[in-house]
Amino acid sequence: MEPKFQSLYDDALHLLRDLCTQDGILASSIEADNYRRVWARDSIVCGLAGLLIKDATIINGLKNSLLTLAAHQHDSGMIPSNVLPNGGVTSYGSLVGRIDTNTWFLVGACLYFQETSDEEVWTKLKPALLKCRAFLKASEFNGKGWIYTPLSGNWADEYPIHGYTLYDNMLRIWGEKIWREITGESSIKLDSIIDKTLLNFWPGTHDDESYGYQSHLYELAKSHIPLHFGAFILPGKYDLRFDAAANGLALYNFSINVDQKSKLTKYIDELTSEISKPLIPAFWPPITSASEDWNLLESNYSFEFKNNPGAFHNGGIWPVWMGLFCLGLAKNEMKSQAKKIVQAFTETVSSNPEWDFQEYLNAIELKWQGKSKMGYTASGIVFMKLALQD
Question: Is the pLDDT of residue 230 over 80?
Fold first, then answer.
């Protein structure tokens, strides 16, 4: 492994361990915008990194996170967005609730038990998991297997992604797969939902079209010959923009065929020509003032507007999702593509003295932006390292 990347990995591991507390894994060590809290998705993503490398300190931090989140579960089954344990503050979302706190909790708790066989903690978590799964079942709204995410209802809370999102549904599929492995049961028709997801989110890549969501829209989406999994589906719309987190989760859980690998390689090459390096943005292409959904972006923020083209959710390059995407590539025998991405990331970090585990890289300016000392970002580097291994 390249010495520069090894140094980055060592620093990432150090940061992740430092973020572990008796209440759980903090999102960041900085005092800003509630980042020194146990956030559901941040803590569990960091915990996932720890599980994958079998790091005892981080795994213990994950355990503490899960117990804290379960202790503050809403009566309806919702898992908190974030918790300030000693301050008595619990948030389930600001403008709207968060679906992915529940799906990450399901994934994290099941993976924790699968890795550790910790019966004592599993006994404590199982009632919360049953309520969480019931909440997700209700979030289908039509009982047909996909959960429906409201605008601002997941990690990209200031970006117009909503409806049947691939990201949220892939997390639920992943969690339900592990739950079934552990318990032998499932409350959903998991295999048919997987088939439905594979067909609709990458139209034209599978023969059985009986699971099409809206047949005329499916045919229209198929005619565009997509080069990757799409982002979300609404009544009246198949949105085929690129979502790095969703594609990473799909690649990690699914095996794609030779034709899909060829198309995905072509798309990575296209991104490289647009960004100047093989770096993977959270969403692409960026939304501009001329885009049809600019009105859903321009006023949707909590503290200040951050979603200029190439920044934050709107094209920002988040190491956490880039790392997960690389891990998915490696699982699909596309390690050479993952290696190019990791090399470009390492070069970008090495050439920028302001690097401090920031949230994202501006895709247009290629400058680090957002909050620093982020466990999210450190986790992405762990995912990248795993993608380089056999």
Answer: yes
In this structure, the strands spanning 232-234 and 368-369 are: unpaired
Q: What is the number of alpha carbons within 13 Å of residue 149 lying toward its C-beta?
A: 30
In contact, 45 and 104? CB cutoff 8 Å: yes
pLDDT of residue 209: 64
Share the mean pLDDT of the chain: 95
| CB-based contacts of 122, cutoff 8 Å, min separation 6 | 109, 113
Secondary structure (DSSP) of 126-188: HHHHHHHHHHHHHTTSSSSS---BPTT-SS-TTS---BEEHHHHHHHHHHHHHHHHHHS--SS
Q: Measured between alpha carbons, how far is 76 from 79 in angstroms, rounded to an integer? A: 9
> How distant is the alpha carbon of residue 48 from its chain centre?
11
324 in Cβ contact with 48 (< 8 Å): no
Token pair listed for 303: 């503290």
Widest CA span in the chain: 55
* pLDDT given for residue 30 in this prediction: 85
The answer to whether the beta carbons of residues 266 and 225 sit under 8 Å apart is: no
CATH class, domain 3-388, is mainly alpha
Encode pLDDT of 7-48 as tens digits: 999 999 999 999 999 999 999 988 765 778 899 999 999 999
Distance CA 379, CA 55 (A): 12
Q: How far apart, in whole angstroms, are the C-alpha atoms of residue 383 and residue 50?
A: 10
* Nearest-angstrom CA–CA distance, 90 and 73: 9
**One-letter identity of residue 321:** W
Beta strand pairing status for 360-361 and 283-284?
A: unpaired
More confident residue, 2 or 256: 256
pLDDT in tens, 47-63: 999 999 999 999 999 99
* Apex 3 CA angle, 364 and 386, nearest 5: 75
Beta bridge partners of 83: 38, 90
Asked whether the beta carbons of 284 and 242 are under 8 A apart, the reply is yes
